[in-house]
Design brief:
By secondary structure, this protein is α/β, with parallel strands linked by helices. About 40% of the residues lie in helices and about 15% in strands. The chain has helices at about 5-10, 10-15, 25, 55-65, 75-90, 105-115, 130-135, 160-170, 225-230, 240-250, 255-275, 300-305, 330-345, and strands at about 70-75, 95-100, 115-120, 140-150, 175, 200-205, 215-220, 280-285, 290-295, 315, 325-330. Helix 4 (about 55-65) packs parallel to helix 10 and helix 11 packs parallel to helix 13 (about 330-345). The structure holds pyridoxal-5'-phosphate.
């Protein structure tokens, strides 16, 4: 474990920052008359600012995930967590980050917005990563490594052994995006946060939890990393309706587990049915809720499907994904419509 002290990884201005102290932060507890935040006294409950640290929701998430509430940062989607990580750790035009390629597009967009150099390290033909190659791309200004497992758009989980090598040897923070972990056969790395202080695990309510519309992402990390991220987020970044709806979903955890189970079953059925089509050249193994497949003419296939109102993701222009479409696993009925459309073209 060779992580540099957090004070050395954080940008100086963030280390020295005195965060905005909002009314809801200064007074904590129950009172009967709230005249501290210039709110409108009418239109409860939406007249009140929400809890800036989302304590009740974090207590619930912590219990479900076996974490301490202080290990949880909540953002407006994973996208906010990614952006806040850049703003906390990467000095524009000085620092850099290293990421696998192909992967989720937001890491590079956030790097570009923050004027931080983004170094891509190509995966091998099985979409696996070589820790040595990643480390070779790092230098003393590399603050973050971005990994995504199961990876988007490839669908596979990264070899755990290589991930652990990076955790052992990299001096900055390792951001591991687990947006699809609920569909995977491997367990989450979040249970090893105490073992690896440089680990930041990203999870989201957008996929397995069926709640992309509420915009809620989690960055799971050491208490000191979470504190740094909390310092720089917008004070009321998670709305009350979002916090309430998230708690409703946590109440429905058993039903969510059933959704995940049926999506995994449909993934296998869809994969088998697709493999019988001549226009499908290869289906990559998936640990996620989507399939990446190589087809005979991706652009034409994509266009013909669009004409029928069936939208998949054309990944033809992505590194190592030449000729590939990415298809989200839908309901059995939706998947049948897709299969029928493809059969008609086969
Ligand atoms: C879908 C997805 C997310 C989710 O992002 P949100 O902002 O939480 O909706 C995060 N990472 C990856 C790799 C994804 O594919």
């Amino acid at each position: 474990m060779s992580m540099l002290p957090l004070e050395q990884l954080l940008r100086k201005n963030i280390l020295q920052l005195r965060p905005y102290s909002c009314a809801r932060n200064e007074f904590q507890g129950q009172a009967s008359v709230y005249l501290d935040a210039n709110e409108n006294p009418y239109n409860a409950p939406y007249n009140r600012y929400p809890d800036p640290l989302q304590r009740e929701l974090k207590d619930r998430i912590a219990a479900i995930k076996g974490l301490r509430p202080g290990q949880i940062f909540l953002g407006n989607g994973s996208d906010e967590s990614i952006d806040v990580l850049f703003r906390a750790f990467c000095e524009p035009r000085v620092d850099n980050v290293v990421a696998i390629e192909p992967t989720y597009g937001m890491y590079k967009v956030a790097a570009d917005i923050n004027d931080v150099t983004y170094r891509e390290v190509l995966l091998d033909e099985n979409f696996q990563m070589d820790a040595e190659k990643i480390l070779a791309a790092c230098d003393e200004n590399t603050k973050l490594i971005f990994l995504c497992s199961p990876n988007n758009p490839t669908g596979n989980s990264l070899n755990r052994e290589e991930v652990l090598k990076l955790l052992d040897q990299f001096e900055g923070l390792l951001v591991l995006d687990e947006a699809y972990i609920d569909f995977a056969s491997e367990p989450s790395m979040m249970s090893r946060l105490d073992e690896y202080p440089s680990l930041v695990v990203l999870q989201t309510f957008s996929k397995a939890w069926g709640s992309a519309a509420i915009r809620l992402g989690m960055a799971l990390a050491s208490e000191s990393i979470v504190q740094a991220l909390n310092k720089i987020k917008y004070p009321y970044n998670i709305s009350l309706p979002t916090q309430q709806q998230a708690m409703k979903m946590l109440d429905a955890a058993p039903e969510v587990q059933e959704w995940v189970e049926s999506i995994r079953q449909e993934r296998d059925r869809l994969s088998k049915a697709l493999s019988e089509l001549r226009l499908v050249k290869h289906i990559y193994p998936s640990d996620a809720n989507f399939l990446l497949l190589r087809v005979s003419d991706a652009n034409r296939l994509y266009a013909v499907l669009v004409e029928q109102g069936i939208i998949v993701r054309n990944r033809n222009n992505v590194s190592l994904c030449l000729g590939c479409l990415r298809i989200t696993v839908g309901t059995a009925g939706e998947n049948d419509i897709l299969l029928q459309a493809l059969k008609a073209m086969d």
